Amino acid sequence: MVLGNHGRGFSSTLFGPLARLLVRLKVSPDAVTFAGTVAVIAASLTLLPTVHLVVGALVLGALVLTDSIDGIMARMVHGEAPRPYGEFLDSTLDRFSDGAIFAGLTLYFVLNTAGATQTWGVATAVACLALGGLVSYARAKAQALGVVAKVGIAERADRLIVALVATLLVGLGLPVQVLVGALALLSLASLITVAQRMVVVRRALVEGKTA
Asked: What percent of the chain is predicted at pLDDT more than 70?
């Protein structure tokens, strides 16, 4: 879920009524997770490459925000008890969603730009895709070792917000170099986040601070 624990109260207030309606209709949280992922993939690969940047950014922003509905539904149905498969499914499908957004931006640069802008645009979008996956992998691997590694300057919410806001601004008329610059900074921030998590895990293992 994009909002994480800090935004849980806000998301529950905002999307609680819809979540309750879906629960009453016997819709499963996992079905909502799948539907949201399919919607993000479809929007990313159709709107962004065809230069519908404003609509794409707004639609994807709304879909990313409503990503918390499945978690709210799960808590309504199962309480606060852990749902290992639900958490695994949500995390795995989040990777599909993130990949689709940055793949859509990569296609945007390939199909609609040229020269240095295209080269750097493709490079930074691909770097965001790859390094974002590493950020998530580092946290998952740390968890497998019994270490909590949620630190970092570029968590999932940060990465998506930066990418979508920059996309929106370019769609509203700013130079495409703004998006290239934002993706470059995002790539660097993701790399730093991976390094931060590596340091946390090493320190925890050396000091024996594992779960």
From this structure: 93
